[in-house]
C-alpha cells in the first residue's frame, strides 16, 4: 500500500483521494480553501456526489484519509502526488493554468523525497513539461522526481462508480518506469492501461471530450432538421445507435451540453489549435450548435406563448447541468433563465439538490420546495434537467395548478403522445414539427 498526496479536493480530487484510500492506501488531501477544508475535516462533503460521502466517512474513520492545508505534512511520506486543481476557462478561451502553476510551485518547495507527480487536471498539451520545469526550479537539486499525465475521465453524478470501473487508464510520461509505477497503483481496478508519452496523454483527454461534445452537437443538428421535416430524433438516435460502429451513447438531443468540462475543454482545444496555426472549424461548429440549442429553446417558448414574455410566469424544473449533481458550472438553465428574465418573464424554479448553488448564479429566481409549487400559476413549464423524480409527477395536479398547460421538454423526458392525451400542449426537441397551432 502506498502513501499518496492529492492536491485539490474538487470533484476529481475528492473522488481520487477518497477512492484510493478505500483501496487501502494512506491519502493526505491538500485543500487551500478554508471553508471547504473545515467541511471536509468535519467529515462532510462540499459537493453532492452519490456514494462519495459514505466512503469519505468510512476512510476518515479508519485513519487512512486526512485533509490538510499543510503541504509539508501531506507530502512528507508521499511517493505519489496527484495534481487535481481546477483549470477553468480563461478570458481568452485558453485554460487558466494559475492553479496548476501554484500547485507545482508548492510541490517543488516541499519536495523532500523521491516522488512521482501525477497530473489529473485537464491541461493543454505541453503543461506536463511546464509542471516539471516549475518543480525543478523550486525543488532541491538532489531530489529525483518524474511527471506523469493521468487524465481523468469520470463523470459527475457517477464519479465513484466511474473511478472503480474505468474504461481505461491513460498514463503519459517521458519516464516509462514512472508511468509503470502509476500503472501498478491502478492494478486493483483491473482496467486497460494505455501508456504513452506526456503530450499524447494530454491530447487524449481533450480529444475524448471534444468527440463526445461533437456527438451531442451532431444529434442536436439532426434534431433541428427533424423538427422541420416531421421526424422524431429519439427514434433516429435509436436507429443510429443500433449500429455497433456508432453506438447508443451521447446521442440524446436537447438543450445541449453544459458542465465544468465540455464547454471549457472544447474551447481550450479550439484555442490550442488556433494558436498552433490550425483552423479548427469542426470545433467551432460544435460550440455554435450548442449555443443555438439554448437559444432555440427560448425561441420555442416565444412561439408557444407569443413574442412578448413580459410578465409571464415561467416554471423551471431542474437547474444543475445534469442530474445527480449540484454543479451549476455552465448549466444551460443559467443562460435560459437569464434570457427569460431579460425578456421580462418571472421565473420560478425547483431542483432536488442544486438550489443553494443556483442562487449564486441566478439570484432573482423564486426558488420553490417542490415541482408542484413551480407549476402554480405558471404559463409554461420548462423541463431543463432530467432528474429521476420528474419522471413520476402527478400530471393531473400539475395541470390543475397551471394557468395554461404548456410544457417545453428540453431533454425529451416525456412521451409526446401521452402528454397531449393528458391535455398539455407539449413540445420536445426534434420530435416532429414543433409549430402546431397553440392549444390545439
Ligand atoms: N469535474 C469533473 O467531473 C472532472 C472530470 C474530469 C476531469 N476534470 C478536470 O479535473 C480538474 C479539477 O476539476 P474539478 O471540477 O474537480 O475542480 P474544482 O474547481 O471543483 O476543484 C479544484 C479544487 O482545488 C483547490 N485548489 C486550487 N489551488 C490549489 C492549491 N494550490 N493547493 C491545494 N488546493 C488547491 C480549490 O480550492 C478547489 O477546491 C480540472 O482540470 C477539470 O477539467 C474534472
Ligand atoms: O447524449 C447526451 C449526453 C450528455 N449531454 C449533456 O452533456 C453534458 C455533459 O454530460 P456528461 O458527459 O454526462 O457529464 P460530465 O460530468 O461533464 O462528464 C464529461 O466531462 C468530464 C470532465 O472532463 C469527463 O471526465 C467525462 O468523461 C465526460 O463525460 C451534460 O450537460 C449533459 O446533459 C447531452 O446533452 N446529451
Write the layout of secondary structure elements.
Layout: E1 3-7, H1 11-22, E2 26-30, H2 34-41, H3 52-61, E3 65-68, H4 71-75, E4 80-83, H5 98-110, E5 115-119, H6 127-138, E6 145-149, H7 159-164, E7 168-172, H8 176-185, E8 192-196, H9 198-229, H10 233-241, H11 262-275, H12 281-305, E9 313-317, H13 332-342, E10 346-350, H14 355-361, E11 366-367, H15 371-375, E12 380-383, H16 395-401, E13 406-409, H17 416-421, E14 425-427
Parallel strand pairs: 1-2, 1-4, 2-3, 4-5, 5-6, 7-8, 9-10, 9-12, 10-11, 12-13, 13-14
Helix pairs in contact: 1-3, 5-6, 9-11, 9-12, 11-12, 12-13
Bound molecules: nicotinamide-adenine-dinucleotide and uridine-5'-diphosphate-glucose.
The site of nicotinamide-adenine-dinucleotide has 27 residues, from α1 and α5.
What does this 3D model show about the protein?
This protein has 440 residues and is α/β, with parallel strands linked by helices. The protein has 3 domains: 3-196, NAD(P)-binding Rossmann-like Domain (Rossmann fold); 206-285, N-(1-d-carboxylethyl)-l-norvaline Dehydrogenase, domain 2 (Orthogonal Bundle), CATH 1.10.1040.10; 293-427, 3-Layer(aba) Sandwich (Rossmann fold). 44% of the residues lie in helices and 14% in strands. The chain has helices at 11-22, 34-41, 52-61, 71-75, 98-110, 127-138, 159-164, 176-185, 198-229, 233-241, 262-275, 281-305, 332-342, 355-361, 371-375, 395-401, 416-421; strands at residues 3-7, 26-30, 65-68, 80-83, 115-119, 145-149, 168-172, 192-196, 313-317, 346-350, 366-367, 380-383, 406-409, 425-427. The strands form 3 sheets. A 6-stranded parallel β-sheet has the order 3-2-1-4-5-6, sandwiched between helices. It has a 6-stranded parallel β-sheet with strand order 11-10-9-12-13-14. β4, α5 (98-110) and β5 (115-119) form a beta-alpha-beta unit. α9 (198-229) runs parallel beside α12 and α12 (281-305) packs across α13 (332-342). It is globular, with a radius of gyration of 24 Å. Mean pLDDT is 96; it is low at 436-440. Residues 122, 152-156, 209, 212, 216, 250-252, 254, 256-259, 261-262, 321-322 line the site of uridine-5'-diphosphate-glucose.
Amino acid at each position: 500500500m502506498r502513501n499518496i498526496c492529492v492536491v485539490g479536493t474538487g470533484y476529481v480530487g475528492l473522488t481520487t483521494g477518497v477512492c484510493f484510500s478505500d483501496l487501502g492506501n494512506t491519502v493526505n488531501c491538500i485543500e487551500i480553501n478554508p471553508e471547504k477544508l473545515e467541511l471536509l475535516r468535519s467529515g462532510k462533503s462540499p459537493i453532492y456526489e452519490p456514494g462519495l460521502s459514505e466512503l469519505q466517512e468510512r476512510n476518515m474513520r479508519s485513519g487512512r484519509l486526512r485533509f490538510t492545508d499543510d503541504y509539508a505534512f501531506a507530502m512528507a511520506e508521499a511517493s505519489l502526488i496527484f495534481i487535481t486543481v481546477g483549470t477553468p476557462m480563461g478570458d481568452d478561451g485558453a485554460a487558466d493554468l494559475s492553479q496548476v502553476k501554484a500547485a507545482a510551485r508548492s510541490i517543488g518547495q516541499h519536495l523532500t523525497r523521491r516522488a512521482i507527480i501525477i497530473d489529473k487536471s485537464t491541461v493543454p498539451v505541453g503543461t506536463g513539461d511546464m509542471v516539471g520545469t516549475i518543480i525543478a526550479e523550486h525543488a532541491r537539486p538532489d531530489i529525483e522526481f518524474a511527471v506523469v499525465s493521468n487524465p481523468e475521465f469520470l463523470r459527475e453524478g457517477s464519479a465513484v462508480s466511474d473511478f472503480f470501473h474505468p474504461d481505461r487508464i491513460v498514463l503519459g510520461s517521458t519516464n516509462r518506469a514512472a508511468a509503470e509505477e502509476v500503472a501498478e497503483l491502478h492494478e486493483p481496478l483491473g482496467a486497460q492501461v494505455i501508456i504513452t508519452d506526456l503530450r499524447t496523454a494530454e491530447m487524449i483527454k481533450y480529444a475524448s471530450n471534444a468527440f463526445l461534445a461533437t456527438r451531442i452537437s451532431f444529434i442536436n443538428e439532426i434534431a433541428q432538421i427533424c423538427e422541420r421535416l416531421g421526424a422524431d430524433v429519439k427514434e433516429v438516435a435509436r436507429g443510429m445507435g443500433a449500429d455497433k460502429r456508432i453506438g447508443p451513447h451521447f446521442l440524446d438531443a436537447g438543450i445541449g451540453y453544459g458542465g465544468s468540462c465540455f464547454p471549457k475543454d472544447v474551447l481550450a482545444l479550439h484555442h490550442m489549435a488556433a494558436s498552433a496555426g490550425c483552423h479548427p472549424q469542426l470545433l467551432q461548429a460544435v460550440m455554435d450548435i450548442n449555443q443555438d440549442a439554448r437559444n432555440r429553446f427560448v425561441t420555442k417558448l416565444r412561439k408557444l406563448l407569443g413574442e412578448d414574455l413580459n410578465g409571464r410566469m415561467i416554471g423551471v424544473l431542474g437547474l444543475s447541468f445534469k442530474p445527480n449533481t449540484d454543479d451549476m458550472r455552465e448549466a444551460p438553465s443559467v443562460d435560459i433563465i437569464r434570457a427569460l428574465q431579460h425578456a421580462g418573464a418571472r421565473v420560478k424554479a425547483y431542483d432536488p439538490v442544486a438550489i443553494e448553488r443556483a442562487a449564486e448564479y441566478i439570484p432573482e429566481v423564486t426558488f420553490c420546495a417542490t415541482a408542484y409549487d413551480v407549476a402554480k400559476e405558471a404559463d409554461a413549464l420548462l423541463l431543463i434537467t432530467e432528474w429521476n423524480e420528474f419522471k413520476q409527477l402527478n400530471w393531473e395536479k400539475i395541470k390543475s395548478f397551471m394557468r395554461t398547460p404548456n410544457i417545453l421538454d428540453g431533454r425529451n423526458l416525456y412521451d409526446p403522445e401521452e402528454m397531449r392525451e393528458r391535455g398539455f400542449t407539449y413540445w420536445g426537441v426534434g420530435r416532429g414539427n414543433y409549430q402546431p397551432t397553440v392549444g390545439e
